[in-house]
Amino acid sequence: MTSITSIPAPRSPRVRTSRRTTRGNFELYGWIFMRVSGVVLVVLIFGHLFTNLIAGQGIKAIDFGFVAGKWASPLWQVWDLFMLWLAMIHGSNGVRTIINDYAERDHTRLVLKIVLVAAFLITVVLGTLVIFTFDPCPAGGPINLLPSFCSA
Amino acid sequence: MWSWVAHRVTGVLIFFFLLVHVLDTSLVRVSPEAYNAVIGSYKNPVMGLGEAGLVAAIVFHAFNGIRIILVDFWAKGPKYQRVMLWVVIGLFVVTMAGFLPRHLMNVFGGK
Ligand code: HEM
Ligand code: HEM
């Protein structure tokens, strides 16, 4: 009996008739994002903690005037904006993983993820608006609480 | 294994802190008085210790995060992952030793 069996050469790519078996590369990109954002966040957050907790009077110095002084500089505005977005996407994606790990019922998972998305959107939108609409010298603000450049 | 648990716990902790943190910072848009009142209410020893705990959580998560990244991307990372855990612990101790005296002095050091 001679029958001809064709054996594909080793390492030749597997032919997929349909890609429906995979859901794209979302999880891979998420995995890479966690790492890239992590490296950037080290710099952003350590810089944030240094200026706010160590430099000058540290935590004692923080008040409205302190924030106004920092956000008078575009550097700190952009700094905080990136920190806000990166930390929120990184943190939310991390919490999503944790929900997937521990919430076993489909219903529970769905509810938790809706809460997560809501918290993400509210925080990012609010934080972004605050940075862009901040007014260091609000009309009628008590002059002793405002930064010194308001009276100039 | 414990480092994985600690990474997870610190990550969630920082996340919840950040939600509250953006909320209290947003008070600068309400009024200088409102912001100062809330920030002022944080200026007590209990919150001071809380801030120290938060910083400890960030410092661990950050250094251990770098270690995870090195294990994944550096060819020799998996081989040195245990050594790197000790490096993480060492850097953590050094960083906190630099930070704590300064911060606790600001919290407890009167005017
Ligand atoms: C106890 C430690 C901390 C203190 C005292 C503190 C203090 C402040 C202050 C005073 C501001 C106003 C603007 C500025 O100074 O840049 C601010 C904004 C901000 N902080 Fe922190 N911070 C702390 C920890 C953190 C951590 C750990 C993160 C990141 C996970 C963070 C993320 C942010 C973000 C994203 C903003 C901008 C908020 C907005 O867009 O409205 N902070 N923080
Ligand atoms: C300081 C710089 C940071 C670095 C270097 C860093 C690094 C990392 C890395 C490498 C992972 C592992 C991702 C994976 O296994 O796929 C991770 C997970 C995580 N991170 Fe961060 N991160 C940082 C800041 C933050 C911040 C600010 C938050 C919160 C807002 C956060 C929350 C989380 C959470 C919740 C996880 C998921 C943990 C898990 O799945 O067990 N991280 N981080």
Remind me, CATH topology of one domain in chain A? Answer: 3 helical TM bundles of succinate and fumarate reductases
Mass-distribution shape of chain B: elongated
CATH topology annotation of chain B: 3 helical TM bundles of succinate and fumarate reductases
Give the C-level CATH assignment of chain B. Answer: Mainly Alpha
Mean pLDDT of chain B: 93
Poorly predicted runs of 5 or more residues of chain B: none
Which CATH first-tier class of one domain in chain A would you pick? Mainly Alpha
Characterize the biggest β-sheet of chain B.
none
Low-confidence residue ranges of chain A: none
- Which compounds are bound in this model? protoporphyrin IX containing FE
Reported CATH architecture of one domain in chain A: Up-down Bundle
List the helices and strands and how they pair.
The complex is a heterodimer of chains A (152) and B (111).
Chain A: H1 26-54, H2 64-71, H3 74-102, H4 106-133
Helix pairs in contact in A: 1-3, 3-4
Chain B: H1 2-25, H2 32-42, H3 45-73, H4 81-108
Helix pairs in contact in B: 1-3, 3-4
The structure holds protoporphyrin IX containing FE (2 copies).
One protoporphyrin IX containing FE (HEM) sits between chains A (45, 48-49, 52-53, 59, 62, 67, 70, 76, 80, 83-84, 87, 127, 130-131) and B (14, 18, 21-22, 25-26, 51, 54, 58).
Give a written overview of the molecule.
The complex is a heterodimer of chains A (152) and B (111). Chain A is mostly helical. Chain A is built from four helices and no strands. Chain A has a domain at 29-133: Up-down Bundle (3 helical TM bundles of succinate and fumarate reductases), CATH 1.20.1300. Helix content of chain A is 62%, strand content 0%. The longest helix of chain A is centred in the N-terminal third of the chain and has 29 residues, at 26-54. Chain A is elongated and about 100 Å long. In chain B, helix 1 packs across helix 3. Chain B is elongated, with a radius of gyration of 18 Å. Chain B is built from four helices and no strands. Chain A binds chain B through residues 35, 38-39, 41-42, 45-46, 49, 53-54, 57-60, 62-65, 67-68, 84, 87-88, 91-92, 94-95, 98, 119, 123, 126-127, 129-130, 133-135, 138, 141-142, 145-146, and chain B through 8, 11-12, 14-15, 18-19, 22-23, 25-26, 28-29, 31-33, 35-36, 39-40, 42-43, 48, 51, 55, 58, 62, 65-66, 68-69, 72-73, 99, 102-103, 106-107. Bound molecules: protoporphyrin IX containing FE (2 copies). One protoporphyrin IX containing FE (HEM) sits between chains A (31, 34-35, 38, 41-42, 45, 87, 90-91, 94-95, 97-98) and B (7-8, 11-12, 14-15, 18, 58, 61-62, 65-66, 68-69). One protoporphyrin IX containing FE sits between chains A (31, 34-35, 38, 41-42, 45, 87, 90-91, 94-95, 97-98) and B (7-8, 11-12, 14-15, 18, 58, 61-62, 65-66, 68-69).
